[in-house]
Amino acid sequence: MKLAIFGTGYVGLVSGACLAEVGHDVLCMDVDQAKIDQLRAGTIPIWEPGLQPIVERNLAEGRLRFTTDAAEAVRHAEVQFIAVGTPPDEDGSADLQYVLAVAEEIARHMPGYRVIVNKSTVPVGTAGKVQERIAQVLAERGETVAFDVVSNPEFLKEGAAVADFLKPDRILVGTRSARAQERMREIYEPFNRNHERTLFTDVRSAELTKYAANAMLATRISFMNELANLAERLDADIEEVRKGIGADPRIGYHFIYPGCGYGGSCFPKDVRALGRIAEQVGYDAPLLRAVEAVNERQKNTLFTKLADHFGGAGGLVGRTIAVWGLAFKPNTDDLREAPSRSLIEALWQHGARVQAYDPVAMDEMRRLYGPRADLALASNKYSVLEGADALAICTEWQQFRAPDFDEMASLLQAKVIADGRNLYPPDRLRAAGWHYYGIGRPERPQAVVR
Length: 450
What we know:
This protein is of the alpha/beta class. It contains 17 helices and 14 strands. The protein has helices at residues 10-21, 33-40, 51-60, 70-76, 97-109, 126-141, 161-166, 178-188, 203-234, 238-246, 267-280, 286-298, 301-309, 339-349, 362-369, 405-411, 426-431; strands at residues 2-6, 25-29, 64-67, 79-82, 114-118, 147-151, 171-174, 198-201, 320-324, 353-357, 375-377, 390-393, 416-419, 435-437. The strands form 3 sheets. A 6-stranded parallel beta sheet has the order 3-2-1-4-5-6, with helices on both faces. Strands 11-10-9-12-13-14 form a 6-stranded parallel beta sheet. Strands 7-8 form a two-stranded parallel sheet. Strand 5 (114-118), helix 6 and strand 6 (147-151) form a beta-alpha-beta unit. The longest helix is centred in the middle third of the chain and has 32 residues, at 203-234. The protein starts with a strand and ends in a 13-residue tail after the last strand.
């Protein structure tokens, strides 16, 4: 099939490349000429494992192309995907200006029947707004052209997006149009050969499902962080609690790892947006507010532990803190709402200097903060420790899981670790003379088996 995708950000580029990979003829459109030039040259503007070779291969074989010409994209395909950003407004609601602008472009140029697919994360009711905007432009053209608006939310995890798209656990399509269903079945037929993964619902239910999924996962994270903070005060070990509750198949082990908070482009934005949707329909949603409040508080936990170690926030003045991990999660360079930023900005505010290292997010860190006297970016995980008074761990990259603690001790000024991801056994480090502060880990020594 011929497909057009508006937007070459995270969702649009991954979707376009993977749809081309299974054989579709995909034209991706973006208004950013510099980005389109990059993509035509095979340069990927985001860091996502496995994406580069797919883009290069499908460019070479002609199944994936890029353009800045909206009319060309609309002419190219009967099915038009909208995959542009929906950034949060000042009140937390999703900003639909880019989605509606694309809808207008499609309406101006559509020569015949089109299926307009909302791939962006959008509030419930957006399909109706898109439909109204298209109908309005068609009326201004003085033409009657048939079209359907479909909701097809993405469920991609950053760092595993290519695998998620090519081997999805479900494909959700919101439409009651038999004609649109037929087109969407054909698009996703290559992904259903093992078993049927496509779920058809009404449009509004599909729109709500995307927000509900992210809010559910964010709730699990905040709940575990709440329990971790309680465990510290009860002299219990949250890691043992996690294993105990995870063994219950009704709960399971996914998304119950305590830490220094969640970040990224989805969970924070979508929890806030769902709360705003609730307000707009007159429903009080205290749980959503609590999920966000717990997460915002949790982002301060590493700073608090470091300040407590040095005798209060005033004890951080003039200190140098090393940071392992900047991205909000492993296998991405995304720093949006990353816990590392909360920690680093708090350290700067209290007179500390930061030395940081991340395997892939260093360029993004430079772009965000520029040159600063109180920030040094190191070339590897050991050089970042040189002369630092303590180490804070914000991201659980694989290369941080089994370090050489003797080498670390020789580089740090003091053997202090504030571990925001509970990577190491507290007893072993404390026995080796480390001041080790985890999340919800007990300060007491455990019994020694003789």
